[in-house]
Amino acid sequence: MKQPMKKTAALLLGAAIALSATGAAAYAEDTAPMPSKLWFQVGNYNIGIDDNVEKLDTTPYIENGVTFVPFAVIAAKSGARINYNGKQTIYMKKSNNKDTYTFTIGSDKYVFNGEEMTLNAKLTVKNGRVVVPLRDIGTLLGWKVASYDNEKKIVQMTM
Q1: What region, left, alpha or beta, does residue 64 occupy, with left being phi > 0 and alpha being psi -120 to 50 degrees?
Q2: Tag placement on the chain: N or C end, fewer CB within 10 Å?
Q3: Where on the phi/psi map is residue 50: left (φ > 0), alpha (ψ -120 to 50), or beta?
Q4: In the chain, where are the structural domains located?
Q5: DSSP category for residue 150
Q6: In this structure, are residues 130 and 122 in contact, taking their beta carbons and an 8 Å threshold?
Q7: Model's pTM, two decimal places?
Q8: Residuewise pLDDT in 10s, the chain (159 residues)
Q9: If you classify domain 3-158 with CATH, what class do you get?
Q10: Based on the number of CB atoms within 10 Å of its own CB, is 54 exposed (0-12), middle (13-18) or buried (19 or more)?
């Protein structure tokens, strides 16, 4: 790829990630009580939040046995704030304001309160959104996988 095209692609990717990360931080501030249950279905634009259903702009998917979901959505529904540095790094602060995480797009490594850790899969970008391994990020945010319907490809998580 020629240099000008690389710069353009990087700028577009950066803008998409910044918009999704910024939206999550703003959304987290505006929400009411934390949900106690979330569900995602692979290939479905719906997300279940307690007894409500909302729309996602990127569907969850499975790759190499790992379920991926949009980072901004799961962070916002968990009360976490994420910020994007305009390059490849995303910073997340949990609602307790004590725990901090630093993630790099394209890497399975992250830093938790200064200590390097490893996820089961790399953060990536799909349809202009940063997507993350659901079980790993969900666990970091305090969620537990309550059930998985292998036939319907539905993951239900509880707080």
Answers
A1: left
A2: N
A3: left
A4: 3-158
A5: T
A6: no
A7: 0.78
A8: 555 544 434 433 444 444 444 444 444 444 457 899 999 999 999 999 999 999 999 999 999 999 999 999 999 999 999 998 878 999 999 877 788 999 999 999 999 999 999 999 999 999 999 999 999 999 999 999 999 999 999 999 999
A9: alpha beta
A10: exposed
